[in-house]
Recover the amino acids of this structure.
């Protein structure tokens, strides 16, 4: 069975760690953020003479997030839309960077294991025979241990 190439494993580790460094930089540069997603929802108001009665919905902006397993929507006034959209985008980018970092950490560990396997040899080497212990060598070892 061929052992993995140490050179290839080193290259993969370096490449992975370079990618990790860029994601770490992204995380460190993150500013104030809002937990959740910025969404636009269309709804009907229910008034008979309104335009939404003919299919043209009213659109409102919300922050959507999960609270105890349930989706919670918080209305965002038009005056806050740009700020909230920016901060929720930062949150999304941070979460994506975190997920990428977790994946890359696993990859690094795998490549390090491959490098270890490529660089580890058994002792005594399989190609050499074990030296035969003689009685005199065994007696010397026993007497020196006492």
């Amino acid at each position: 069975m061929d052992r993995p190439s140490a050179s290839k494993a080193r290259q993969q580790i370096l490449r992975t760690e370079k990618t990790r460094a860029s994601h770490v930089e992204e995380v460190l540069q993150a500013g104030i953020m809002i937990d959740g997603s910025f969404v636009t929802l269309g709804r009907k108001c229910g008034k008979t003479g309104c335009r939404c009665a003919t299919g043209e919905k009213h659109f409102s902006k919300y922050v959507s997030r999960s609270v105890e397993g349930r989706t919670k929507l918080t209305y965002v006034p038009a005056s806050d839309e740009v700020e909230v959209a920016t901060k929720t985008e930062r949150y999304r980018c941070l979460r994506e960077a975190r997920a990428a970092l977790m994946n890359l950490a696993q990859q690094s560990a795998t490549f390090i294991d491959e490098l270890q396997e490529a660089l580890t040899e058994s002792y005594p080497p399989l190609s050499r025979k074990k030296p035969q212990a003689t009685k005199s060598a065994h007696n010397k070892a026993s007497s020196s241990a006492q």
Notes: The chain has a mean pLDDT of 86.
